[in-house]
Amino acid sequence: MHCPFCRHDDSRVVDSRTSEDGTHIKRRRQCPSCGKRFSTMETASLTVVKRSGASEPFARDKVMVGVRKACQGRPVTEDELALLAQRVEEAIRAKGMAEIDAHDVGLEILGPLRELDEVAYLRFASVYQAFESTEDFEAAITVLRAERPAVGIEPSSDGPPG
């Protein structure tokens, strides 16, 4: 690590702290040559491998762009999209892999998107699960309905009989 003040090619770590979301490490460093202190931010790189075989760094913005298309015309805010993208990145990083297929990123989006908006979920799933017919949509809707919590059913407050 070069000193930004004197360009000396070495520095000593004085303190290290992890960011709140756990994705960065902030290190306080001191140059042994000039004695000045400076900070660095370190991030573990996450690479997405595309179908073509090309690799690129993971970008939350790309997740948001894809999900925004599925959410077009739906009551979903930019803050909700940003939170979804953060959840997706955290889930991918939690797998502990340095590389992930682009298709797997799309599949990782499905769970949080389903919680956010079922219509947007169906739109997105139709691409990433390669729906080929109306039967594919019907099957996905059937699963959504079956797994949806019962609405309007409340437990009885009468108490135990007796």
Task: Give a short summary of the structure.
The chain has 162 residues and is an alpha+beta fold. It contains 5 helices and 6 strands; from the N terminus they run E-E-E-E-E-H-H-E-H-H-H.
What does this structure look like?
There is one protein chain. By secondary structure, this protein is of the alpha+beta class. The chain is about 40% helix and about 20% strand. The protein has 5 helices and 6 strands, in the order E-E-E-E-E-H-H-E-H-H-H. The chain has a 3-stranded antiparallel sheet, with no helix packed on it. A hairpin with a 5-residue loop joins strand 1 and strand 2. The longest helix is centred in the middle third of the chain and has 17 residues, at about 80-95. The termini are far apart. The model has no long low-confidence stretch (mean pLDDT about 85).
* Share of helical residues: 40-55%
User: What coarse outline follows from CA principal-axis ratios?
Assistant: elongated
Strand order of the largest sheet: 1-2-3
Number of helices: 5
Low-confidence blocks of residues: none
Structural class: alpha+beta
N-end to C-end Cα span: 77 Å
Major sheet summary line: 3 strands, antiparallel
Strand composition percent: 15-25%
Order of helices and strands: EEEEEHHEHHH
| Strand segment count | 6
Q: Rg from C-alpha positions?
A: 23 Å
Mean pLDDT: 87
Give descriptors for this structure.
about 160 residues; alpha+beta
Topology:
Elements: E1 12-18, E2 24-30, E3 37-43, E4 47-49, E5 55-57, H1 60-70, H2 78-94, E6 99-101, H3 102-116, H4 118-128, H5 134-147
